[in-house]
Structure formats: C-alpha cells, structure tokens
Amino acid sequence: SAVQKFHDNKIQTLEHVLLTAHHQNCLTVGVYESAKFLNEYPDGAVLCVLALDEEDEDDAALQIHFKLLQAFCYNNYLDILRVTGMRRLAQLLDETSNRNESRDLHCILVTVSPNASFCSTALQQVARFCEESRHRYECLPHLELQDR
User: Fold this and answer.
1) Nearest Cα to 90, choosing from 128, 9, 145?
2) For the chain, how long is the longest CA-to-CA vector?
3) Could you tell me if residue 96 is inside a domain?
4) Looking at residue 27, which CATH number applies to its domain?
5) Quick check: helix, strand or coil at residue 110?
C-alpha cells in the first residue's frame, strides 16, 4: 500500500542517516552518554532517536530517562523520534562484531561536526517527517525497523 511504501521509505532514510553518521563518527550512543552530551553541547545534535522494544516498555527507569530526554529535545527544538527494532539497530551499527558487551542503544544522537555535510537531504527528510508528525499532534513520531 502507499502508506507502507511511505513508511518503508522513511525507515530507509533514517537508516541511511544513522549509518552515514556512524561512519563519520557523528553518533553519541546510550541514554547516559546522550544526556551528558546534550548537557555539554545543547546545540551539538541534529536528531535524537529513542529506541524501545515491547519488552522494555515496563522499565520505569528507562521511561523516566525518555521523558526527560523528550522534554529537553522539545525545549531545544531538537528533532526526536522513536523506533522499535533494537536488533535491526544493533545490526545497522554493527554492534555484535567486536565488543564483549553491547552498548546501550536506547538513545542515539546524531551529532554535528565541522565537516559533517553528510546526508543533508536524508536528514532534511527525517526532519520533515518529525515536523509533519508534530503537526498531526503525534508527539513522538514512530518508525518500526525491520530485521533484514
């Protein structure tokens, strides 16, 4: 359907943004690390991705962190979206390969760097999706990443 195609296109765009930022070392990964980064560089991020699967929904501490991050992002006009599909996120960021313990992927910031001309079109498309969702009063735009 047209809606599914639109959704798939948004997912591919987001994955492109995350992969490109990852390769250019423009990602901050982890709830604590992201909060710390935003505290030090409030204008240093262009996108905040909150990742949560069903099994994490009962984690009260995580929900509290998410609410605080969400509030910060809204107050600082930082685009924010929620994704489900932690396994796909780990695949994308290639987290399984060379680490003993996996990183906390519940929060990922796409950060700016002086030479980050990366994927500006893709980033603009994600920003537009976030903005359109806000206009439809969906406070937190949501995309579902699929395992490949």
Assistant:
1) 145
2) 44
3) no
4) 3.30.1330.30
5) strand
